[in-house]
Amino acid sequence: MSFKKLFPNLYKELERYDSIYPTVLDHLQVCETEEEAFEIIDFFERKEEITPDAAEFLKELIKEHGVHVFGKRKRGDWEKYGLG
Question: Cα(41)–Cα(43) distance, rounded to whole angstroms?
Answer without folding.
Answer: 5
